[in-house]
Amino acid sequence: MATTLLAPVKTERQIFEHSMSEDDPNANTQVPSVVGTELRWGPRHKGAQELAELYSPGKRLQEWVCVVVCCTLCVSAGLLMARHIQADASLLLAAMAGVLTADFASGVVHWAADTWGAVDLPLIGKNFLRPFREHHIDPTSITRHDFIETNGDNFAITIPVLARIVWQLLTYDDRIIDQQFNWIAYWYLCCIFVAMTNQIHKWSHTYFGLPTWVVWLQEWHIVLPRRHHRIHHVAPHETYFCITTGWLNWPLEKLHFWSTLETIIEALTGCKPRADDLKWAHKRS
């Protein structure tokens, strides 16, 4: 299978001892801690409960609006693009580049939100960093979120780009559109995969009841596989940040890309990576 082509950067023992067991009906069972019987993760963890309570009606409304606007723009752009499509190698390359860009972007956003900032920061703390903190303490919480809560923020990111694509397709001369179509297709595919990233992420934590076609996509590493993403959830969550396809995780890890960035930022600012993440993980009843 494609998912086993590259050796993981964590051993089977590390995965077993330092990540939550998810291959049961989301019962959040876990390996007993070597330091005691206190909960390290799961929905009954104090930090997870406090973070879940911070999800507000205002945030819910923002997610609803973003999902509706994004879906409208996505469908509109797709219909407008249909009459310009010419299947060739350059279009395939544009599509692949769009997918790779989405995977890298997912890694940058995921790394930044996991590693820096705090839940008590104005505006972005409760609205955008909170889900990342909750997810590390209770990884299967995402499987209990509905479509809106799962995807609202990712859909929001794509709205400016999709709006520009629709504007181009409506206002540009057909000759100019045909000349720029591969670039338009690149950005469109990038937006599709960015928008779907958290749904793909949710599937990677869903061990039961997935449609056969999703499992097939995971097994052949077309989207993020469950076993592959498990590597990120080995505490302290310092690797394998790309969560769209996960194609870039192994090469970025071998290049020490994320750890080098963290070393530079810590040297310049004095901020410790994942300090806020650890604070929530250490909360006890």
TrEMBL record:
Subcellular location: Membrane
Membrane topology term: Multi-pass membrane protein
UniProt KW Transmembrane helix keyword: yes
Principal location class: membrane
Lipid desaturase domain boundaries: 100-276
GO-annotated molecular function: oxidoreductase activity
InterPro entries linked to this entry: Lipid_desat, Plasmalogen_desaturase
GO cellular component terms, A-Z: membrane
Swiss-Prot/TrEMBL keywords: Membrane, Transmembrane, Transmembrane helix
UniProt keyword Transmembrane, yes or no: yes
Family the UniProt entry places it in: Belongs to the fatty acid desaturase CarF family.
UniProt name for this protein: Lipid desaturase domain-containing protein
